[in-house]
């Protein structure tokens, strides 16, 4: 915090002569100009200096473009453009292009975030006194505004709409998207929910009572809420509250904190500290009822602050993160004939686990309830009400545990006989969720780390007392565990595991699934693909990567990005393996194989025109998503028929996207080494120019020409006289020459049947779009989103595809 103060002071001194009485920072950013991450003097400031906007450090050498309260002690962030993809501390910049598009680029020039706007005229980027970052035109109309895309905070006068969502940070000082969401549900009600790949559920308002008991109304479908300047909040579902310091004056923010609690804060500008001016209380929200707070098997209780603990016989999965829950010290086994005799229960008074009731019984005895749970492998424990009603709650999962003196439920957790009993109580850890809490920064994490290492030191001290012989054995075992944990934390990078919605497979699992990599179904420049079947019966395609030079940490980070990409025209990545030299990706198995087997084969069951047209459209949609829509924009760099797969309905799915991230070699000019397949490479590859999305557009155009002609671009090239070994211009020139003569039928695959006007229209549209995509000048090629528009609008009069407005 002292460093931040010195930084602000130095900026004030350095800028005083240039800006005189004006606040430090830029008042606006004009087209063609940038804010560079290296220059601490480059940041925007609101007219009265309440807010600042610039690069905010989130790691050792990683930054996010952010908005923060200027006068708060810790520069409290209220918005981030790239919270899930920080950029490098060198050569990264935010640029306002002349067409009004606001673009954030990383050190290698790749686009990390963009406002995705287009407009002409006199435009500028400004930070308003409300904290709203806007791209506006000369008539003061907003072309884009940050208020439409909140992160974890709602500011006064910022409208909260049906499309808005506040998403918490992952942890103190970790700004990545967390697991707690504040949004309108489908029934027009504002709610808080816990959302992870394995578990999702609403925890506020109370789902056990009706919306009317909670004081809400589902009838207003406008779904709008706002926090006004006075500190009053009002929503269309009739949810209202006022700040305790209600009135004009204090700067405020409504934030979903990393612990899942929604809080209204007011700023004391004399100290720069925040105080809580509203907090859901009483029956409305209970900190220990926040789902996922203590993880699987974890128990939350007030001691006196909310604190997590593991049941007796269980231990924490991660000493630094309670949300990962607990695990039994001895694994439970189920299914054998004697399993019920081997099982026992740990009794926990005044304890219950919310939800996941496998069955419900009432007016039965405790013994009957116990036998019911023992008889099923699905039952992990049961709760029994001690109020005389005989209510029995067998559970299929033990999550969201809490302990209170007034809880009438006695909880029984299934365990194996002989496990530690109640005398072995695992230590607790405060969550610091009190009403007086101030949000802490990364310095608190370092304190937690020091506590962890003090705990390890105590553990070593105990081991030493055992004796020399056991010291060697236990020390060796501990070192392996510690080394594994350090390696996993390095690979996880503190947050990646929970952000990933797919599985990390072991090498042994994939070797078993593929029967020792027996059935090869494909081979390419990145590796060999094998068909396999997982233990759960899913058929998969396992790509065994060759030539990956990245370490486990970098590989895992890149794969986690690819795993988040999801579109119906992209092959789904289900998981990966990273064990030393073994690097593998596990994909869904696509039944009908790759496009080349259908287009270039002599089969009598060749694809028809309608099928080829839909394949062209689907492929364009998949590439458009990669280039412009998904969170992490991705260049494919190897678009070809072998990387376009067809499912059982012959719908196209683009494969091998993201390989450029795993195998990239980048310098200041872009990709320093040619990637892709000869015959599909854009001219800029050969000219050593910077590679962008238009290179994929070129390759896509070649694929469409192949769909039309039935000819292989690479094969056609190798059979041509006088081939110079360059790009696929021979095929392109041949088709252009024939098309210019009006002899389009000579270009077409003879297996295609063109019997009506509609079919001829499709042929014409495909040909024109393809030739537009393979133009030598990449600036004349359309974006993939424009290709989608042209192909899906074929029933309308064909536009002039050479009109510059299409580029």
From TrEMBL:
Stored SUPFAM superfamilies: alpha-D-mannose-specific plant lectins (SSF51110), Protein kinase-like (PK-like) (SSF56112)
Occurrences of domain Apple (ranges): 334-416
Domain EGF-like: 284-320
Bulb-type lectin domain location: 29-148
Sequence positions that bind ATP: 543
Signal peptide: 1-20
GO cellular component: membrane
UniProt keyword tRNA processing present: no
Chain ranges of the Protein kinase domain: 515-806
Pfam family, one: PAN_2
Catalytic activity of the protein: L-seryl-[protein] + ATP = O-phospho-L-seryl-[protein] + ADP + H(+); L-threonyl-[protein] + ATP = O-phospho-L-threonyl-[protein] + ADP + H(+)
Keywords: ATP-binding, Disulfide bond, EGF-like domain, Glycoprotein, Kinase, Membrane, Nucleotide-binding, Receptor, Serine/threonine-protein kinase, Signal, Transferase, Transmembrane, Transmembrane helix
UniProt protein name: Receptor-like serine/threonine-protein kinase
Organism for this UniProt entry: Cucurbita maxima
Gene: LOC111482161
């Amino acid at each position: 915090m002292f460093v931040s103060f010195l930084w602000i002071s130095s900026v004030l001194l350095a800028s005083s002569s240039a800006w005189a009485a004006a606040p430090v920072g830029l008042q606006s950013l004009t087209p063609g100009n940038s804010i560079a991450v290296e220059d601490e003097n480059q940041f925007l400031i609101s007219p009265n200096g309440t807010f600042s906007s610039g690069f905010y450090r989130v790691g050792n050498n990683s930054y996010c473009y952010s908005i923060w309260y200027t006068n708060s002690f810790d520069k409290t962030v209220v918005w981030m453009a790239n919270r899930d993809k920080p950029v490098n501390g060198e050569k990264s910049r935010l640029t306002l292009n002349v067409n009004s598009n606001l673009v954030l680029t990383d050190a290698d020039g790749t686009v990390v975030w963009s406002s995705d706007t287009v407009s002409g005229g006199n435009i500028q980027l400004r930070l308003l006194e409300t904290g709203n970052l806007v791209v506006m035109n000369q008539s003061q109309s907003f072309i884009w505004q940050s208020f439409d895309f909140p992160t974890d905070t709602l500011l006064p006068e910022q409208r909260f709409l049906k499309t808005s969502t506040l998403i918490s940070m992952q942890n103190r000082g970790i700004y990545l998207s967390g697991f707690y969401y504040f949004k309108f549900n489908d029934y027009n009600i504002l709610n808080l929910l816990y959302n992870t790949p394995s578990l999702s559920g609403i925890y506020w308002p109370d789902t056990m009572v009706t919306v009317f008991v909670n004081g809400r109304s589902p009838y207003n479908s406008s779904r709008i809420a706002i926090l006004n300047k006075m500190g009053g909040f009002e929503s269309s579902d009739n949810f209202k509250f006022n700040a305790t310091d209600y009135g004009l004056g204090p700067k405020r923010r409504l934030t979903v904190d990393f612990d899942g609690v929604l809080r209204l804060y007011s700023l004391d500008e004399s100290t720069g500290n925040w105080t809580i001016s509203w907090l859901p209380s009483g029956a409305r929200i209970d900190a220990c009822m926040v789902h996922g707070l203590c993880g699987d098997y974890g128990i939350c209780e007030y001691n006196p602050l909310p604190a997590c603990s593991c049941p007796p016989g269980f231990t924490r999965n991660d000493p630094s993160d309670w949300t990962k829950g607990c695990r039994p010290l001895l694994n439970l086994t189920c299914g054998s004939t004697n399993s019920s005799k081997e099982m026992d229960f740990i009794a926990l008074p005044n304890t219950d686990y919310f939800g996941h009731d496998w069955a419900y019984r009432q007016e039965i005895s405790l013994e009957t309830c116990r036998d019911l749970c023992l008889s099923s492998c699905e039952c992990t424990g049961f709760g029994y009400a001690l109020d005389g009603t005989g209510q029995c709650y067998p559970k299929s999962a033990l999550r969201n545990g809490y302990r209170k003196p007034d809880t009438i439920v006695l909880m029984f957790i299934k365990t194996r006989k002989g496990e530690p009993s109640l005398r072995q109580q695992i230590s607790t850890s405060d969550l610091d969720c009190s009403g007086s809490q101030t949000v802490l920064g990364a310095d608190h994490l370092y304190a937690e780390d020091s506590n962890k290492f003090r705990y390890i030191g105590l553990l070593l001290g105990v081991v030493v007392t055992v004796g020399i012989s056991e010291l060697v054995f236990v020390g060796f075992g501990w070192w392996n565990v510690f080394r594994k944990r350090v390696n996993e934390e390095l690979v996880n990078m503190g947050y990646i595991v929970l952000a990933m919605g797919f599985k990390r497979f072991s090498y042994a699992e994939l070797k078993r699934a593929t029967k020792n990599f027996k059935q090869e179904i494909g081979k390419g420049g990145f590796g060999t693909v094998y068909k396999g079947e997982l233990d759960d019966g899913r058929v998969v395609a396992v790509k065994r990567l060759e030539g990956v030079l990245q370490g486990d940490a970098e590989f895992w980070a890149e794969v986690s990005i690819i795993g988040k990409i999801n579109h119906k025209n992209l092959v789904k990545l289900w998981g990966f393996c990273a064990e030393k030299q073994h690097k593998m990706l596990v994909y869904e198995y696509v039944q009908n194989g790759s496009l080349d087997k259908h287009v270039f084969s002599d089969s009598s069951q060749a694809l028809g025109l309608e099928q080829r047209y839909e394949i062209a459209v689907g492929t364009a949609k998949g590439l458009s998503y990669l280039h412009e829509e998904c969170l992490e924009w991705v260049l494919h760099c190897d678009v070809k028929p072998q990387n376009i797969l067809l499912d059982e309905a012959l719908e196209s799915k683009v494969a091998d996207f993201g390989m450029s991230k795993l195998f990239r070699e980048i310098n200041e000019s872009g990709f320093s080494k040619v990637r892709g397949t000869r015959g599909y490479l854009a001219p800029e590859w050969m000219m050593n120019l910077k590679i962008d999305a238009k290179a994929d557009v070129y390759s896509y155009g070649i694929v469409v020409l192949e769909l039309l002609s039935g000819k292989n671009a690479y094969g056609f090239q190798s059979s041509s006289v006088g081939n110079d070994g360059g790009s696929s211009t021979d095929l392109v020139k041949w088709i252009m020459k024939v098309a210019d003569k009006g002899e389009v039928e000579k270009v077409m695959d003879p297996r295609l049947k063109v019997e009506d006007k509609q079919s001829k229209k499709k042929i014409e549209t495909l040909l024109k779009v393809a030739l537009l995509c393979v133009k030598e000048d990449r600036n004349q090629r359309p974006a993939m989103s424009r290709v989608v528009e042209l192909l899906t609008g074929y029933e309308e009069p064909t536009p002039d595809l050479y009109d510059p407005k299409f580029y």
